[in-house]
């Protein structure tokens, strides 16, 4: 068994710059010692994501994620700790040194899953390239205009008709994982397992960091098993979640950021052809309709999205469903409408990339597209215009933006030639009593109001040199801390343990986030402010501790008698004297 050495982890931490990494995920601006921006992990209109370069930490005060550079990479790319180290080590050219005999397993369960998926992909590719076994698959893709470079780039493979292609090549431990991942299925009447993907062209599905998380298999045309679905996807698993996966994003991410636009299509072949023709900022939804998770994923790269769905009725319906989701966001989403019967693949083949480029850059707003569809569908007579206004109003209610809602009212009123106030009145009628209008994001303070315990620890994190100024009273105050996490952090800080090491020792993600949040509190930046905060916290905690002891004694006195009563009464008197002395002492200092 082996684990990544501490020296490697230390080298990666020293080399990796959290500001550099975070700047690639969201636009940051300076705010005191922090840099702030829109959180790359959730939709928001006002910045609550904080990066503190001097501490190499991040914290979002809205979704509550926080931690060091390893945590940032792990959260963003859906990696575990070891994978995040490898990701950064590869980025900065740092060799990974592993040591044997370490505690724990040599690979996490996730790493074992990734290894099984990679092995399956390798087997599928070998079969695809086999002169005989892969002939039908290669012929089909050649007929669709997919060239060899695209096949290699997307790692396309083939699963033959046999029931045991993978089952024969996996070891027992791998078979168990393969069943969990949906590569194999367990026979009902025996302990044997068999292949889930058969006679299918295999498209590996990768996460944004380029790791295979599942597969999608297209059945070859003319398959005798006509009852089989055209596409078969990996089932939902720890790694494979359709609602937050986009096919080709690992290839398109850089181009999306560079072009400040993402194009979303629906099919694997469509996506591959788009890339082949130079539309490398394109991705495809993976076996499901467009979801809010997809949009949140893309917002990490750009706020500008173009939907390029098929020109048939199903494609138009998909646009309409996408509109309802889009209204919940602040993204700029447009609808590139293809002629009836066309899809991106056929349009590229018949019209060429230049005309498709024109369709994309001239695409109208998805909101306008949806409203126009309603108006055309309902007709231009009086009843039709009334129905259109009602349907449009139902759509407006779903908007998260009051500005967009107002623009929708004016747009529909102009198109239908009616008074905007009529739509406004109808909108108000549909809101429930007490409804305050569309949700708007409030600015999240860089650091929410803290209690004495949090203030003390936050000040110690940011200004450890102040520990020596009143160490005796500080140690007494730390003993009075009620929050176990804060008590541990404070004790380690006064023992001289580095903040980064304390953060690394925390296994619980909530604990990491809480500590990172305290380190990002901007109102303790000034040492004089921190000195006052520590003094006030010590005073508050010391007095509170003695008061609590007195309250406990008072409860004990109610059931005491004889010598015990005298003993407790004397102790209560002594504590009261101590409390009075503390109050006088702190009053004199202030």
Describe the structure.
By secondary structure, the chain is of the alpha+beta class. It folds into five domains: 2-100, DNA Primase, Chain A; 109-240, Alpha-Beta Complex (DNA primase DNAg catalytic core, N-terminal domain), CATH 3.90.980.10; 244-364, Dna Topoisomerase Vi A Subunit, Chain: A, domain 2 (3-Layer(aba) Sandwich); 370-430; 452-589, DNAb Helicase, Chain A. 52% of the residues lie in helices and 12% in strands. The protein has 25 helices and 18 strands. The protein has a five-stranded antiparallel sheet. Strands 14-16-15-17-18 form a five-stranded mixed sheet. The protein is globular, with a radius of gyration of 31 Å. It starts with a strand and ends with a helix. 37% of the residues are buried. Residues 432-448 have low confidence and may be disordered.
């Amino acid at each position: 068994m082996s684990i990544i050495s501490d020296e490697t982890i230390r080298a990666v931490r020293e080399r990796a710059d959290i500001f550099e990494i975070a700047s690639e995920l969201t636009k940051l601006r300076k705010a005191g010692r922090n840099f702030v921006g829109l959180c790359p992990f959730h939709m928001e209109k006002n910045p609550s994501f904080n990066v503190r370069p001097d501490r190499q930490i991040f914290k979002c005060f809205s979704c509550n994620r926080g931690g060091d550079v390893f945590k940032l990479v792990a959260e963003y790319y859906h990696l575990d700790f070891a994978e995040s180290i490898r990701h950064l080590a590869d980025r900065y050219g740092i060799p990974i040194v592993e040591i044997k005999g370490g505690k724990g397993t040599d690979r996490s369960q996730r790493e074992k899953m990734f290894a099984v998926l990679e092995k399956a992909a390798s087997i599928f590719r070998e079969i695809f390239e086999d002169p005989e076994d892969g002939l039908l698959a290669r012929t089909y893709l050649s007929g669709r205009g997919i060239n060899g470079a695209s096949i290699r780039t997307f790692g396309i493979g083939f699963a033959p008709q046999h029931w045991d292609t993978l089952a024969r090549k996996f070891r027992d431990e791998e078979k168990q994982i393969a069943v969990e991942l949906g590569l194999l299925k367990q026979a009902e009447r025996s302990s044997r397992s068999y292949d889930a993907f058969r006679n299918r062209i295999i498209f590996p599905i990768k996460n944004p960091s380029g790791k295979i998380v599942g597969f999608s298999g297209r059945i070859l045309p003319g398959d005798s098993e006509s009852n089989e679905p055209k596409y078969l996807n990996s089932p939902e698993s720890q790694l494979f979640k359709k609602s937050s996966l986009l096919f080709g994003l690992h290839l398109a991410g850089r181009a999306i950021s560079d072009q400040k636009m993402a194009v979303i299509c629906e099919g694997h072949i469509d996506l591959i052809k788009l890339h082949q023709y130079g539309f490398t900022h394109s991705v495809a939804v993976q076996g499901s309709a467009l979801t809010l998770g997809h949009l949140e994923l893309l917002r990490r790269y750009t706020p500008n999205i173009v939907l390029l769905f098929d020109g048939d009725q199903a494609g138009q319906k998909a646009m309409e469903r996408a509109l309802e989701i889009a209204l919940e966001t602040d993204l700029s989403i447009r609808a590139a409408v293809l002629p009836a019967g066309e899809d991106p693949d056929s349009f590229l083949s018949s019209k060429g990339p230049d005309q498709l480029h024109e369709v994309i850059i001239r695409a109208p707003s998805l909101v306008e597209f949806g409203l126009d569809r309603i108006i055309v569908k309902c007709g231009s007579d009086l009843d039709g215009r009334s129905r259109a206004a009602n349907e449009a109003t139902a759509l407006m209610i779903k908007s998260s933006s009051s500005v967009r809602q107002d623009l929708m009212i004016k747009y529909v009123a102009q198109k239908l030639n009616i008074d905007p106030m009529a739509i406004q009145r109808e909108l108000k009628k549909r809101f429930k009593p007490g409804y305050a209008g569309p949700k708007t994001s409030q600015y999240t303070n860089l650091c929410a109001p803290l209690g004495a315990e949090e203030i003390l620890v936050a000040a110690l994190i940011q200004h450890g040199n102040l520990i020596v100024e009143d160490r005796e009273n500080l140690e007494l105050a730390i003993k009075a801390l009620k929050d176990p996490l804060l008590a541990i952090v404070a004790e380690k800080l006064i023992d001289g343990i580095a903040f980064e090491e304390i953060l690394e020792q925390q296994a619980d993600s909530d604990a990491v986030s809480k500590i990172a949040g305290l380190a990002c509190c901007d109102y303790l930046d000034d040492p004089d402010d921190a000195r006052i905060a520590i003094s006030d916290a010590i005073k508050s905690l010391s007095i509170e501790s003695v008061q609590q002891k007195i309250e406990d004694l008072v409860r004990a006195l109610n059931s005491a008698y004889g010598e015990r009563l005298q003993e407790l009464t004397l102790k209560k008197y002594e504590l009261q004297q101590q409390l009075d002395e503390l109050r006088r002492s702190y009053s004199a200092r202030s």
